[in-house]
Amino acid sequence: MRYTALHADPAPRLAPVPAQPETMDLREPAHRVSPRARTMWLVADLLQVAVVTSLLVVLAVLWQPLGSRWWVVVALVALDLLAAVLVPVWRYRVHRWEATGSAVYTQRGWWVREQRIAPMTRVQTVDLAEGALARLFGLASVTVTTASAAGALSIDGLDRDVARRLVADLTRQADAVAGDAT
Known about the structure:
By secondary structure, the protein is of the alpha+beta class. The chain has helices spanning 36-62, 70-94, 132-136, 160-176; strands spanning 31-32, 96-99, 103-108, 114-119, 123-129, 139-146, 153-159. The protein has four helices and seven strands; from the N terminus they run βααββββαββα.
């Protein structure tokens, strides 16, 4: 009988990866949210300023030792107003989204920028949400839940019709992709 030694190939080779029509790379997504989102975010921030200002004034009136230090309340309200005016503009410049046949891309944040890619193979659910304020402006949000520890991707401030088409398209694309989204 003849015996042959079994040994592993010293340089294992990986099978070539088939070329995909679309590549997933971390880049700035192509589409901006609706310009009306700036106004919606401004109104939401101003409502928040009104609530905070009311609470500060009530606390200042009830807290007698404040005395002549009303400038603290005025300064806090002024800073809050400044942020309410500037943040929506900044947010609009940063918030972007894109959906391709292979992935959903999002970019969001105003102080810290977050870019995310969710491959279609990982998409579990696609949700549409229209809050009361968003409905007034004809806007909606799309949330793409994935099999990721980082959580869902959210695209806020989309035109209502664009959001509905996006949900339908993403649902159709995710359903067409083989796999179980895990």
